[in-house]
Amino acid sequence: MDTVTTDLPKLYDEAQDFMPLFGTDYIEFYVSNSKQAAHFYKTAFGFQDLAYSGLETGLTDRESYVLVQDKIRIVLTSPLKSGTDIGKHIDAHGDGVKVVALWVPDATKAYDEAIKRGAKHYMSPVEEKDNYGKVVRSGIYTYGETVHVFVERDEYNGIFLPGYKEWKTTFNTAPVGLQYVDHMVGNVELGEMMTWCNFYKDVLGFAQIVSFDDKDISTEYTALMSKVMSNGNGRIKFPINEPADGKKKSQIEEYLDFYEGPGVQHIAVATDDIIGTVRELQSRGIEFLRVPDNYYDVLLDRVGEIDEDIAPLRELGILVDRDDEGYLLQIFTKPIEPRPTLFFEIIQRKGATSFGKGNFQALFEAIEREQELRGTL
Description:
2,3-Dihydroxybiphenyl 1,2-Dioxygenase, domain 1, nine-stranded mixed beta sheet
């Protein structure tokens, strides 16, 4: 049952901010070729050069490129030799998200609170310094091998973190209008959704703001269940998905099979001009899921009046949904890795605080068509 209501601020108030979180600091991907991945994210998604660490900065086991677009920072990390933990992670999961870093006022306190409340240790608080100041980082595990790193950086004025140097190249494409991380979705095994919802509630003080069951998210063949956890200021939202019983293999099961465990399924990034952003992304080769064209024949009957013309939405495949607070526009890329795992959502909110429940049927049928082409449905 969808619990999005006009009392959403009250739901946010249920979050206990014993661990204040200012927002997403960075997302680190473990990838097999960080240099080529950086070129892809620059060329296709409009990210810009920011920072580098590797052999030139004294590291001998890994190489990282940091890219930025507005408030979004991504780190692309590859191993420089065999037998590393990074390499083993890539062997098991393919390219994917390892670290979801959270910006905090006190990384030591955040770590101590999390461990006290039952979190699994990943990284003890460590102070990192260079000529630009200091950063304190610590970390805990969440679902699968994914981790949250707490980043305290109020006394740091460097380009990214100590140990990184500025990275500049002669090639940077124009940004495509991506602004910040709206939410990030995790896939977990059957029966584990509540385990991880309780983790975010008990360990990080989050509140559940939305819940969808298999009546909300299902087709003739597959189904899933999802709950959305948020911190108190609403800047960090983590939907958690698990599969539900269906006639065929759901997208969640397909993900778990190919990622070989729980992990980040997709990253939703915000724009204030989704038509311009998607048009530019398509021109750069990004492929998106498409719903049947008749979706648009009844769109205005379903969502009411919107500011946008239907024609470009139909042309680009952008979806629209409305809740009590307003409406949103959204679209989903096809998987961007060889394994059918990680993808991106582009979202523009025009008052809406929900996640597109009205689009689920058409969207999931589109996903099933892709699964059928892959032979994994």
